[in-house]
Amino acid sequence: MAKRASLPGASELFRPTKRVPTPEPPAATPEPAAVDAQPGASGRIRHDHKITVYFSEDELLALEDANLDLRRAHGIRVDRGRIVRIAVAEALADLAERGAESRLVNELRQQ
């Protein structure tokens, strides 16, 4: 049986040659008072929780049309999830502000 040559591993071939300084974390900024803050859409952040929402074909097509209209007419590139998060935030803010007279309550009463 032929003897195999001993070759270096990846850690020997690609070891760091100089130390890279680790950046210091940014200073903590005080958070604004949450008492007066209305719930709003979270925007472009990493989300920790997920829900599944089912749409009818017509609702999904309307959402896609709105997305295309935002892109075409307003130059806003956004995903469907962000549109839905903003719509939910708006509905919840309206409910908190107007209560029984909110559009959400009126729509749910009509169904």
Strand content: under 5%
How is the biggest beta sheet arranged? none
- By DSSP, the count of extended strands is 0
Overall 3D shape: elongated
Helix content: 40-55%
Uncertain runs:
none
Classification by helices and strands: mainly alpha
Question: Cα-atom Rg, whole angstroms?
Answer: 26 Å
Distance between the termini: 81 Å
Q: Helix-strand pattern, N to C?
A: HHHH
Task: Label this structure with key terms.
single chain; 111 residues; mainly alpha; 4 helices; Cobyrinic acid a,c-diamide synthase
Describe this structure in words.
The chain has a domain of 67 residues. The radius of gyration is 26 Å and the shape is elongated. The mean pLDDT is 82. Helix content is 44%, strand content 0%. With 111 residues, the protein is mainly alpha-helical. It has four helices and no strands.
Summarize the structure.
The chain is an all-alpha fold and 111 residues long.
List the helices and strands and how they pair.
Layout: H1 10-13, H2 57-74, H3 80-98, H4 103-110
